[in-house]
Amino acid sequence: MDFLLTLANGLLTTLKDVVPIAVIIFGFQLLVIRKPIPNLKKVLFGFFYVLIGLVLFLQGLEQALFPIGKLMAAQLTDPAFIYAGFATIPDVIHWGDYMWVYIFAAAIGFSTTIAEPSLLAVAIKAEEVSGGAISVWGLRIAVAIGVAVGISLGTFRIITGTPLHYYIMTGYVIVIIQTFYAPKLIIALAYDSGGVTTSTVTVPLVAALGLGLASTVPGRSPLLDGFGLIAFASLFPIVCVMAYAQLSEWRESSRKNKDSEEEQ
Amino acid sequence: MKAQFSIFLGYFLNSARDLASIIAVIAFFQLVVLQQPIPNLGEILGGVLLVMLGLTFFIRGLEMGLFPIGESMAYAFARKGSVFWLLLFAFCLGFGTTVAEPALIAVAQEAASVAAIGGVIEHTDTAMNSYATGLRYTVAISVGFAILIGVLRILKGWPIHYLIISGYTGVVLMTMIAPAEIIGIAYDSGGVTTSTITVPLVTALGVGLASSIKGRNPMVDGFGLIALASLTPMIFVMAYGMTF
């Protein structure tokens, strides 16, 4: 009974998200475009599947991944775990003591990004549009590595208490420099991959990690330092995707150079 | 019917593979690093099954519903040739998908409590609610604006990086003058605006427009709408923080 109740609740929340979109789409279709929707039945079924899919997906996350993920974030950031080998908890913390937190941040960032449905949607489109030059898995792994590095660095920032905007501005400078060197075809997609990484799966787990850290590390306040991990997770994939495109271009051109040398 | 079933089975196996790494990470940290048993194992396994099913339905629905409708509307608008209606549609899509986004509602409420504790607004429910609502509408308007600009960019063929770099400059300038409490929230708000339904729809719209307009390349011009939608909220939220 409880299960059905939460399922109904989830359906209501998702409906709130879907209804405005459906109203806008069908409203414009009927009033402005004034043409029947091609394959209307199939499209409606598609919307229905999306709705059902999201409800089940969110319900599953709430039931399985979020509780254990949040519990683990709390346990890993607990001073009792970090200083388990010490007789007393030292007053001054050292960032190196949080090694498992960085590894966990990277691992959870990577694996949740792989499961992120919006990233999958963009990757499917990118493979289709690029005619297979950008593969679904290539893009997903590049983005996931970016999120892993980003979140790891974000936890380091919370532990050391350095200002968020220094990191973000440095990231921006790197992105701008890369923009001038990266292959033109990848730029828009790389920028987009920053925004899609952080939605349904990643945000709640990452937010729990940030709040856990900010409330247990001495001298940090959850209100001022708990935020910012998501910003890291949306900046680093851009760097990573452009780097991936650049590397594959260099590899391609050096192989071509080699081939032409061998021919001569 | 049988064909449908085997399609679903294929998607289901893909979803299982997508989730395998999360399960491996959680099992490793829980059993090896923290050395604790996994609590409520049965419930967790049930939840994982739901996630897999959900992902399967979602991807199938995406290909049946969201992608085709996004593209067919892009073609229809391109044929109709009315820039005004297209831009209005772009704004409505951005605004409408963001204003009801659950992640944004949560962030807005959190931001209101930060502001109340920081003494920026009064620590009462009415003040906090009006702050949160104001913030939500600010973000929704900024996303609507972003999609509008992004669609205009596809029509005109402006290079995306000029827009993004000037956006970044805007963020940096705003960071210098915005109150410190709002900065973290502003930066995060960029990431939460783009929901799981918006992303495929907006991507299909952009790619559809770029492929139906002569002289545009879907790869170069079709993407970039999401990037703009995650950039403008940062600027708008910092501006909102400064008005108090």
Order of helices and strands of chain A: HHHHHHHHHHH
Q: Let me know the average pLDDT of chain B.
A: 87
User: Total domains of chain A, how many?
Assistant: 2
N-to-C series of helices and strands of chain B: HHHHHHHHHH
Annotation field: number of helices of chain A: 11
Number-wise, the strands of chain A total 0
Q: What assembly state would you assign to the polypeptide chains in this entry? A: heterodimer
Task: Bin the helical content of chain B.
Answer: over 70%
- Counted by DSSP, the helix tally of chain B is 10
Alpha carbon gap, first and last residue of chain A: 77 Å
Beta content of chain B comes to under 5%
Mean pLDDT value of chain A: 84
Relative helix content of chain A: over 70%
Give the low-confidence spans of chain B: none
Assess the beta-strand content of chain A as a share of residues: under 5%
Shape field of chain B: flat
Verbal overview:
The complex is a heterodimer of chains A (264) and B (244). Chain A is mainly alpha-helical. Chain A is built from eleven helices and no strands. Chain A folds into two domains: 1-63, no CATH class; 77-263, no CATH class. Chain B has 244 residues and is mostly helical. Chain B has ten helices and no strands. Chain B has helices at 2-33, 41-80, 83-99, 102-117, 125-156, 160-177, 180-192, 198-212, 218-221, 225-242. The mean pLDDT of chain B is 87. The chains are: A mainly alpha (264), B mainly alpha (244). At the A-B interface, helix 1, helix 2, helix 4, helix 5 and helix 7 of A face helix 1, helix 2, helix 3, helix 4 and helix 6 of B.
